Amino acid sequence: MxxxxxxxxxxxxxxxxxxxxxGKHAGELRAGKGYTFILESVDGSGWRLTNHVHGERxxxxxxxERITSVKRRPDGDSEFxxxxxxxxxxxxxxxxxxxxxxxxxxxxxxxxxxxxxxDGFPYKRIEDIDELTMSRLIHHRGTVVGEISGLGLQSHxxxxxxxxxxxxxxxxxxSYLMYSTG
Length: 182
Known about the structure:
Layout: E1 4-10, E2 17-21, E3 24-31, E4 37-41, E5 46-50, E6 52-53, E7 56-57, E8 62-67, E9 74-83, E10 86-89, E11 92-100, E12 113-118, H1 131-136, E13 141-149, E14 155-160, H2 168-180
Parallel strand pairs: 11-13
Antiparallel strand pairs: 1-2, 1-14, 2-3, 3-4, 4-5, 5-8, 6-7, 8-9, 9-10, 10-11, 11-12, 12-13, 13-14
């Protein structure tokens, strides 16, 4: 199984970081204007990241907007959304910090966190999920598709498989900001 390992290393203030992919430079993270962050990949692609999701600032939530060029205005596309640890990619829902199917919640409280896929989820869009369901999701078990470690330390690591490879850089940046910068 092919694994992509993103390592986010703090370079200054908590929101200033370098992102490595399998040991090679992949991008930079820095503060933007008005409580936003800018993610720029080595190929010049850029994203504006914020925790302002669905009209309010939310913990463990992040929304990205694609920037055609880091020096230009964003096009306004909400490209990736994490709300209360939950995100959708390619028609499937995933949970950051979820519990693997074959373990108990108490086994995952300290140390490594898992990214799990929620199979058979009855919703099609995050916006359709009610608050009660959203609050209970953190206890949901799912199929492990990645793992997160180094939470809150100088280095933050996100390991993912092929299933999430297309959003790996953005996912690593969002995860770092949600878990390491408070």
